[in-house]
Specification:
Number of helices: 3
Number of strands: 5
CATH architecture: 2-Layer Sandwich
CATH class: Alpha Beta
Radius of gyration: 14 Å
Strand order of the largest sheet: 1-2-4-3-5
Order of helices and strands: HEEHEEEH
Number of domains: 1
Strand content: 35-45%
Shape: globular
Structural class: alpha+beta
CATH topology: Gyrase A, domain 2
Largest sheet: 5 strands, antiparallel
Distance between the termini: 46 Å
């Protein structure tokens, strides 16, 4: 028996929520979000460097960068972003993320796309700051 496919919107929303949610669906206990650096690389290509303390794992840092990318897209008048890559480095309790996203007015091709408005709302609900 074949499983039914989820509608595209629901699939995207589930991917966003699963990526942002931590073990308890909130920010890690004792987490400190220490800043976001935004670097416009070329037109729609943007680099986000984030720093935080007391993350539990790479996914916490990735979620912080995703939230920053979503807010940046909205600030620039775009509705969507597509994740290209994220690298995470840890030194003790200090974590740094280096993420690259494209931003666009229309839903871009690819599997790692985000709806900026929905993502910013979810980030606020989870307690993850944006820009």
């Amino acid at each position: 028996m074949r499983a039914a496919a989820l509608p595209l919107g629901l699939t995207t929303a589930l991917a966003v929520l699963s990526g942002c949610a931590g073990d308890a669906g909130r920010v890690p206990a004792g987490a400190k979000y220490e800043g976001i650096e935004t670097i416009l690389l070329d037109g729609d290509l943007v680099n986000f460097r984030v720093s935080m303390r007391n993350a539990r794992r790479d996914a916490d840092v990735d979620a912080y960068a995703r939230c920053a990318a979503a807010q940046y897209a909205l600030i620039r008048g775009f509705g969507f972003a597509r994740h290209l890559r994220t690298t995470v480095a840890q030194n003790g309790n200090e974590w740094r993320g280096d993420a690259v996203y494209t931003i666009s007015a229309a839903l871009p091709r690819g599997l790692r796309t985000i709806d900026a408005e929905v993502t910013v709302r979810d980030c606020a609900a989870l307690g993850i700051p944006t820009i």
